[in-house]
């Protein structure tokens, strides 16, 4: 009697998604240059052939992580709250409070995935630098637009320069993460964000 062999097929889109998620965590833990394709494959049970079908090189995989994982993460955590509330001061304060409350050892161990790659890859790879800069520019632009709308609604001081303030807030947030990571101190990270909350409140009318 003939035995029918049923081969389990893998969904290509799911395979690609699994590789991106595994690569993101590997890069977060080890950095891009030290990231191991072998560990990424081991964590996904994907074959090396399937990996190279979706991503021709490790660099291509890394750039995809920037565009398809890190950028959407930022949009969810930072852009969406501005759309949900008509007061940017309230939105910013709530986001910072959530970060302070949720801060744990993983924040200071791994830091910010965006900032980590900026520090590691911007001096080494122009395409990485451009991709990371696009994310920063989008972050600043969205925040500046929210602050400008807040001015029009009378909720943000008229003398505030929205883009300059947005740039400063982004720089301060990334600085707090970096400081906490280097000091290996959740408290230092939280204290920095608390002071940023004070600054944000000062922008209100």
Automatic annotation (TrEMBL):
Gene3D superfamilies: Tetracycline Repressor, domain 2
Residue ranges the UniProt entry marks as DNA-binding: 36-55
Pfam families attached to this UniProt entry: TetR_C_13 (PF16925), TetR_N (PF00440)
Taxonomy, superkingdom: Bacteria
Domain (HTH tetR-type) ranges: 13-73
GO molecular-function term, one example from the UniProt record: DNA binding
Keywords: DNA-binding, Transcription, Transcription regulation
PANTHER family given in the database record: HTH-TYPE TRANSCRIPTIONAL REPRESSOR NEMR, TRANSCRIPTIONAL REGULATORY PROTEIN
Protein name: TetR family transcriptional regulator
Lineage: Bacteria, Pseudomonadati, Pseudomonadota, Acidithiobacillia, Acidithiobacillales
